[in-house]
Amino acid sequence: MEMSYVLDTLFALFAMTLIIFMVPGFAMLEAGLVRTKNVTTVLTTNIMIYAVASMSFLLVGYTLAFGAWENESMSIYAVFLFQMAFVGKTVNIMSGGVSERTRIVPLAFFTVIMAALIYPLVVNVTWGANLLSGTLFDISAMHDLAGCTVIHSTGAWALLAAILIIGPRKGRYGKDGRIRVIPASNIPLIVLGALLLWIGWFGFNGGSVGSIASKDKADLVALTIMNTNTGGLAGAIIVGIIMYVQYKRFDITMILNGALGGLVSVTAGADVFDMYAPIYVGAIGGAIVVYGVTMFDKLKLDDPVGALSVHLLNGIWGTIAVALFADVAMWDQVKGVLVVGVFAFSASFTVMYIINKVSPFRAANDEQQQGLDIEECGLEAYPEFRRSI
Amino acid sequence: MEMSYVLDTLFALFAMTLIIFMVPGFAMLEAGLVRTKNVTTVLTTNIMIYAVASMSFLLVGYTLAFGAWENESMSIYAVFLFQMAFVGKTVNIMSGGVSERTRIVPLAFFTVIMAALIYPLVVNVTWGANLLSGTLFDISAMHDLAGCTVIHSTGAWALLAAILIIGPRKGRYGKDGRIRVIPASNIPLIVLGALLLWIGWFGFNGGSVGSIASKDKADLVALTIMNTNTGGLAGAIIVGIIMYVQYKRFDITMILNGALGGLVSVTAGADVFDMYAPIYVGAIGGAIVVYGVTMFDKLKLDDPVGALSVHLLNGIWGTIAVALFADVAMWDQVKGVLVVGVFAFSASFTVMYIINKVSPFRAANDEQQQGLDIEECGLEAYPEFRRSI
Amino acid sequence: MEMSYVLDTLFALFAMTLIIFMVPGFAMLEAGLVRTKNVTTVLTTNIMIYAVASMSFLLVGYTLAFGAWENESMSIYAVFLFQMAFVGKTVNIMSGGVSERTRIVPLAFFTVIMAALIYPLVVNVTWGANLLSGTLFDISAMHDLAGCTVIHSTGAWALLAAILIIGPRKGRYGKDGRIRVIPASNIPLIVLGALLLWIGWFGFNGGSVGSIASKDKADLVALTIMNTNTGGLAGAIIVGIIMYVQYKRFDITMILNGALGGLVSVTAGADVFDMYAPIYVGAIGGAIVVYGVTMFDKLKLDDPVGALSVHLLNGIWGTIAVALFADVAMWDQVKGVLVVGVFAFSASFTVMYIINKVSPFRAANDEQQQGLDIEECGLEAYPEFRRSI
To answer: What pTM did the predictor assign?
Structure first.
């Protein structure tokens, strides 16, 4: 009993640490994807999110999601840390998709509300105390191991709301209907960031099993991490093949988004899939990213990092896939997707709408032209490097 | 018994690994903070420190600090590795603060002395064999979990000695009293480095509890890591607020130094604070950094990375804070700060003074103008990027 | 029994995670070492290798190496993940040494064969099911803890085959016999990458002990990690000294290759060395790198990252060193080096020769001149930074 308590605490701390590597992961990924003139702002936003979201979750959110600070199977502080490591991700997903045009202060206000209220309410009705127990909207039967819907879709619904309120980057969609390609500024940072996210996912999904302290649980944790990795592999490979067949060139940013899409797609079911299912689920997840990115651009939903495809489409696909590849009821999954989607989108939209009146999200067009870094942070990311564009 | 030995060894190895992430952490942080023409030198210095300090500690320092290579509660090799992971940090703190003007060879000599003698003597009288036992200067009663005084202050007192001997960077303080602002060259590296340090701190403070192999210890480790993180959050948030109120701009380098200041400030007491104390301690720690940086500049103590504020002021504040926020005697803390401070400063000053006669620390003014990389390393950090300044 | 199963599974997952940090490790190291015009290609190659090699090992290689998917001492999925983390390294070693002139598609074909057949066969006859049992070529008595021969030499023999088939970079060896120095483009990435590899090595060698679940095993794991680290320290220090004595300048790329050489050199015997042997073994390993790099350049074997010296020479040296510094028979070591060398080189050469007919490895001279990134990936690594060369 005591040994199991120790082991599960140690395991949760290990998993939490891996997830915290996603903080530099998101930061480097996004810093590489945007233009140099917006890099400092994107990085500052990422640090702000980790600090503000975690503190909000400590002071308010955790209690709202789970009730009392009590746990018998491992240290409550390890439980908190593991859950806290998740919370910023919902805002990361959202902020990345509206980068290059969004100011930090209103994002900070939204971060407080997301981490103190919106996300904790979603957790409450899925993994937590369950306010909706006994009602028509009870979705606690949804199988969502590590937050395919609870985290990825929630963050991405908030992103959709944000894109509708903030609009596209200046000049992204020309009056003639042409879409201006805006190249990523630093490919090594993108690769580094994506790989740190990948490693963090082992903690995300593996740790969500909740215990390693028996033979069965140890097997389940190891299978879950293996399946997580396989989903990422399949996503990367399928996108690599699509890229080569279509363009004879390997677009590494798309391949990495394919890997991330694959990772999202197995996040709901990595613990109930056999070791081959993630190959199919992840490959479909990767393909979804390729076609999703094009689709959202046609809809003029400007998302510089592809977060809608990676997190929204795959958040939905991954949750549904559990019913297709494991013994889980489809309706429980669909109902979970719908209830969380309606709540996360409408709550986020409402909150952002109000914040936007007080402190507008969107940077002025000339500020966007100049780059946000000067106005928002007073610091260029690479002041010594002469720019060619 | 055997299970506890295994668990504590595994836990020490896990904590040690996290601390080793501070090696790239310091390296990236400092590489981002200096001008491109000094980046290779700063990086080479960081690698030199890890190699030379660790080897010196292996051959001499560990035995001086702890006596016999024996341990009953976990593998002695894990104990060594955990302690070895600490030792370079004292020199990192020092070298960062004198970067852009300091040569590598004399630093290497000092690294040997610091890691073989000065730091081990500090450890000896605080956590180790205690040569001062029974004397007036016995400071083993000071509560310093993971080295707020033992590591951070020791390194920063050495830095103060180094700044007095080496002087400011050429051109930093104009004859007209103006302080020339020298912008950081690579913000993404700063963010990456600071976040790796943050993650390393979980190992630093969590591992310093020394055992995880019982319910109580597991709780204590998890609380310690949680408190460590909270200190960093509070430091970042308070500096973000100060920046916005004062300048309407978020200076990310200052915010990250605020986070690091918050992390230092809870390093002495993270195991004896309740879960709310780190909010206050870390916030004060962050604020100290902001005002400390200005103060040291007024004193013309040129410290390009803010290490005096982060590690010296917060090393002192964090050690004192234990007496304010936990049931620990103030005098034990103050006495520890004083005895270590007097010893670390005077020993470092003396050793540096002698080394400086043989192999001067300071690079010549024209070498500084050209950048140290050519002369010290023969390699530019970014040879293909055209410089605008 | 059950507790030991849990502990060893947890330990294997921890070690595996550290090894996965070598994926960004290799990627950053190589991205820093090549010219900016080839950075995206190198990064894409690294991602391709991880995805394709891991998937090939999952579908074919693991079974070929180890037979049935069964294990009694820990979760079979953890065993797989730990072994899978190794497999891409053989191709990484190879691809790095032929970078700046090699196309991605033929490399992908070779990756499949290496991960599904060549490397699994090497593992089979050393650590695995042992097809050669009872024959003259039985090399299972070779002591090779974590793959000094099995991984490092195997990958580096493949590299030698690749260099012979692909040839040097255009312009590297002038007609007048002069060797053109091609400077690394991004030193911070090199340092970051090398340090991530270093940390990954703790998992590589420590995890290869195979169990931590007793007092003796815990001691052995900790000693192994300590010895691993010491090998790296000694390699870095000796190369630093050689650099300073010969050139009065610290070439950080050479120092880091010295560290990596030291790490390779203790990979066969870290578990059977006492705590002082790695100082000698690693120092010799570092020195080998310095003189190896010069030697291979004289032989016009163009290897932009120094992989032949780091992995081939030290793979051999490290395997031999076990017999010199521990109680292991020399002939078993030599025989292992020879059998693996002959097989790995001839199998790799044959496979590459065939692939090269179908899909040539070598990028055309004008493509090399332009940089591979445009043709292979369609993306520049740093499109906004104006280039000086």
So the answer is: 0.98
**Can you give the residue range of the structural domain that contains A27?**
2-129+143-377
Sequence-distant (≥ 6) Cβ neighbours of residue C284 within 8 angstroms? C265, C317, C321
Give the B window 149-208 contacts with C, CB below 8 Å.
186, 189, 192
C137 is a domain residue: no
A389 touches chain B (CB under 8 A): no
Tens of pLDDT, residue by residue over C252-266, are: 999 999 999 999 999
Q: For the domain that residue C11 is a member of, what is the CATH number?
A: 1.10.3430.10
**C186 domain-assigned:** yes
Q: Within chain A, which residues score under 70 in pLDDT? A: 1, 389
Per-residue model confidence (pLDDT) at position B175: 84
How far is it, in rounded angstroms, from Cα C87 to Cα A204?
Answer: 24
* Neighbouring subunits of C (3+ Cβ pairs under 8 A): A, B
Query: What is the predicted ipTM?
Result: 0.98
pLDDT, tens digit, for every residue of B267-294?
Answer: 999 999 999 999 999 999 999 999 999 9
Q: Whose structure tokens read 């990085």?
A: A43
Q: How far apart are CA B133 and CA B242, in angstroms?
A: 44
| Count of Cβ atoms closer than 10 Å to residue B181 Cβ | 6
Computed over its alpha carbons, how large is the radius of gyration of chain B? Answer: 20
Give the length of chain B. Answer: 389
The amino acid at C3? M
CA distance C24 to C21: 6
pLDDT at residue C176, as a whole number: 84
**pLDDT at residue B388, rounded to an integer:** 77
- Partner-chain contact C250 B14, CB within 8 Å: no
Question: Which residues on chain B are in Cβ contact (under 8 Å) with C198?
Answer: 20
Residue of A nearest to C20 (CA): A199
Residue B1: what pLDDT? Answer: 63
Backbone angles phi, psi at C360, to 5 degrees: -60, 135
Please report residues of C whose CB lies closer than 8 A to that of A38: none
User: For position B389, what pLDDT does the model report?
Assistant: 61
In a domain, B137, yes or no: no
3-class DSSP assignment, residue B184: coil
Residue A72 near chain B (CB below 8 Å): no
Render pLDDT for B297-309 as a digit per residue (tens, 0 to 9). 999 999 999 999 9
Residue C11 makes CB contacts below 8 A (sequence gap 6+) with B10, C207, C211, C212, C213, C221
Spans of chain C below 50 pLDDT: none
- For residue B317, the number of C-alpha atoms closer than 13 Å in the C-beta half-sphere is 26
* Chains with 3 or more CB pairs under 8 A to chain A: B, C
- Counting the structural domains of chain A, the total is 1
Q: How deeply is C358 buried, as exposed, middle or buried, from its count of CB atoms within 10 A (0-12, 13-18, 19+)?
A: exposed
Question: Where would I find the beta strands (DSSP E) of chain B?
Answer: none
**pLDDT digits over A315-359, tens only?**
999 999 999 999 999 999 999 999 999 999 999 999 999 999 999
Q: What is the 3-state secondary structure (H, E, C) of C216-276?
A: HHHHHHHHHHHHHHHHHHHHHHHHHHHHHHHHCCCCHHHHHHHHHHHHHHCCCCCCCCCCC
Contact A199 C386 (CB under 8 A): no
pLDDT at C177: 82
Q: Which of A187, A212, A259 sits opposite C39 (nearest CB)?
A: A187
- C134 is a domain residue: no
- The predicted-structure confidence for A50-94, as pLDDT tens digits, reads as follows 999 999 999 999 999 999 999 999 999 999 999 999 999 999 999
Q: For residue A120, give the nearest of A77, A74, A86, A152 by alpha carbon.
A: A86
pLDDT at position C290: 97
User: Longest Cα pair distance anywhere in chain C, in angstroms?
Assistant: 68
Identify any residues that bridge with C362 across adjacent strands, giving them in sequence order: C102
In this complex, which chains have at least 3 CB pairs below 8 Å with chain B?
A, C
